[in-house]
Amino acid sequence: MTLDEYKKVPTKEVLENGAEKTSVPPVYGYGVRHIQAFFMFVAYALAYLARAHLGVTVVAMTDEVKNINENTTIVNGTNFTLNSALNSSVTEDSVWNIYRTYQWPKSTQEMVLSSFFVGYAVMTFASGIICQKWGGKIPLQIAMFVNGILSILSPWIVAWGGWKALSVCRILQGLSQGGMLPGIHTLLANWVPISERGSLSSYVYTGSGLGTVLGFQISGLLAYSRFGWPSTFWTIGVLCLLGFTLMTIFSSATPYDHKTITEAEMKYIIGDSGEGTHTQPTIPWKAIFTSTPVWSAIITHIGVAVGYTFFFMQVPTYMHAILKVNVKNSGLLSSLPYVSFVICCIFFGYLSDVLVNKNILTMKNVRRLSNSVGTLGPGLCIVLVSYTENVTLAVICFVAGLGAQSAMHTGWVVNYIDLSPNYSGALMAIGNGLANFCVLVLPILVSNIVKDVTNQIQWRITMFLIGSVMILGNIIFVIFLSTDVQPWNERGYTDSKDNKLKKEKEVLKSNS
């Protein structure tokens, strides 16, 4: 696809009388690109399933708020209890008793929960380079395989080495998932035509909401079942390995790699030029890091990441400690906001394409509107929920907040592709890496403010800070965003070329 074709949708033709004639892009029906989008969706859902379930599972593993049973044996700070429904031959004080519960304080739980993001943040930058050189499929395969194996082994790992061993396991899972978003963004840039960018991208990213819902549901239902909390890890591990198998057999990195795609659909995806997007070993780092529109997207990316992470890491604990919801119901109620997220995400995706393709709003204003809804909505709702102890009102706030936040996928998320289809994976890697380094501060912030998980005032202070960060990021994005394809997106562009162009402009200015 040529540079001009990316700049604006729909295209405009000038009639003989000078008036503009708007032409809606041609429509190609259901095809291979939808199947590929489905596999991206499945991979993303499974990644969030493996990531998010621990927010509920750790409550069952520790049950900090409940009083410990008098008959429970405490050894080295660990609460040893064997699931009574299972006839295990392992003795209660055995190191291999995987059904025990643990006396981990809030600070230790935060260390375990945040350890995933240590690995995730470290690997994100490198994953952008991997995607640029070898495409987006390989990072997704790695994430599915590693998370599957480690999830299955986790109950034995924590029984053997305690919270430190589990933290190492989560770091490795985070490392393997570092390439998920850059990989998906690279695949989207390859497979999604510009006229469907909002709808198909939003559909794929509903995987995060569905994965979180499944994570909360599975962990909430299995935690106190006859199979115990370890069954949560086993179930998720098997699902991830199934996802790996699907990706390996049926997914393709680009339309060129797919064996059965029609010529008509390929032309619809990549345009008349037949060029499409391309991989290139050299990334124009200097041009990227000095781009104001890129930084505006990154800053709001950071704000949204902090808010979203707070939702799935802290909300289960908040509902258990403040709203007095038991673990099983916590999983069910904590899932409702993500159901709203999935539904609204699809709605906002299709709405954005309609607004742009029918010339109701410019692409730039659609990005502004979507991002504002996706940050102001959850920012305000997260503050409001801190003022109530009513379960129904709190859940309504969470549902409304995450439903609104889904609009971000047609805001800053897809804006990375707007700015540079060829380097969208690298842009996402940069933004996601910086965002997750900031996310690492979140558990430290929460544990230092929320000293007592049953103290609502302490939670309120935390929620005010989270909401403020989200809203500030949106203000910067709305002011400085761009939807034009940047010059450094072109094939063969280098930073030295950029310097040459700047010098030529300076010479022209001095001569004028």
Structure notes:
The chain is mainly alpha-helical and 512 residues long. It has 19 helices and four strands. Residues 1-25 and 64-93 have low confidence and may be disordered. Its main location: membrane. It is a multi-pass membrane protein. The chain crosses the membrane at residues 38-61, 111-130, 142-163, 204-225, 231-250, 294-315, 335-356, 368-387, 426-445, 457-481.
Features:
two-stranded antiparallel sheet; mainly alpha; 68% helix; single chain; Growth Hormone, Chain: A; MFS_dom; disordered N terminus; Major facilitator superfamily (MFS) profile domain-containing protein; globular; MFS; transmembrane transporter activity; 512 residues; 2 domains
Quick take:
By secondary structure, the chain is an all-alpha fold.
How much of the residues is beta strand, in percent? under 5%
Helical proportion, percent range: 55-70%
CATH superfamily of the largest domain: MFS general substrate transporter like domains
Largest sheet: 2 strands, antiparallel
Distance between the termini: 36 Å
Strand order, main sheet: write it out: 1-2
Named at the architecture level, the CATH assignment of the largest domain is Up-down Bundle
Helix-strand sequence: HEEHHEEHHHHHHHHHHHHHHHH
Quick check: average pLDDT?
A: 80
Shape call? globular
CATH topology of the largest domain: the name is: Growth Hormone, Chain: A
Task: Work out the number of β strands.
Answer: 4
